[in-house]
Design goal:
Strand content: 5-15%
Helix content: 40-55%
Radius of gyration: 15 Å
Number of domains: 1
CATH superfamily: P-loop containing nucleotide triphosphate hydrolases
Number of helices: 8
Oligomer: single chain
CATH architecture: 3-Layer(aba) Sandwich
Structural class: alpha/beta
Length: 168
């Protein structure tokens, strides 16, 4: 891929990824969308019906396939970095960690129950997830771009700057 976007749920990977792909003239791909298309059901339904471990196995396979074949902008699900094999596969790729604080997450996602991992006490759970994942996002990242208070266009511009790309 030209660039891989990682970060927590609701940070804007899909929106920013589509903008970057358009500016680069390359395709956009989201591994969560790949899983939904393959399984024919929503991620929340996979969590409920099969459990998180089954979803993570699907996610690991989807990420490996996308990293091997995709040449555009690739967005990974928020928990993809939990898998050590996935983190190893990301080595050598341009990976941008899109970060945000809890207050920004609350504004963007409403921290509502539509996210399976945030169904109970969403603000507390989001903070716990970030404490468990932040170091993993940082481990795989070539660059970190804060998204707090920025529009998707401003974040896309910041990604270009962080990677020292020139816009056409």
């Amino acid at each position: 891929p030209a660039v891989v976007l990682v970060g927590p749920m609701g940070v804007g990977k899909s929106t920013v990824g589509a903008l970057l792909a358009e500016r680069l003239g390359r395709p956009y791909r989201d591994t969560d969308d790949d899983i939904v298309a393959e399984q024919g059901r929503a991620i929340a339904d996979i969590f409920v019906d099969a459990g998180e471990a089954a979803f993570r196995a699907l996610e690991k396979r989807a990420v490996a396939a996308a990293l091997a074949a995709h040449t555009g902008v690739l967005a990974l699900g928020g928990g993809a970095v939990l898998d050590a094999d996935t983190r190893a596969l990301l080595a050598g790729h341009r990976v941008v960690y899109l970060s945000m604080d809890a207050e920004e997450a609350a504004r963007r996602t409403g921290l509502n129950a539509a996210r399976p991992l945030l169904a109970i006490n969403p603000r507390k759970r989001w903070r716990e997830l970030m404490e468990a994942r932040r170091h993993l996002y940082e481990e795989v990242a070539t660059a970190v771009v804060a998204t707090d208070g920025r529009t998707p266009e401003e974040v896309a511009r910041a990604v270009f700057d962080a990677l020292e790309w020139k816009e056409a």
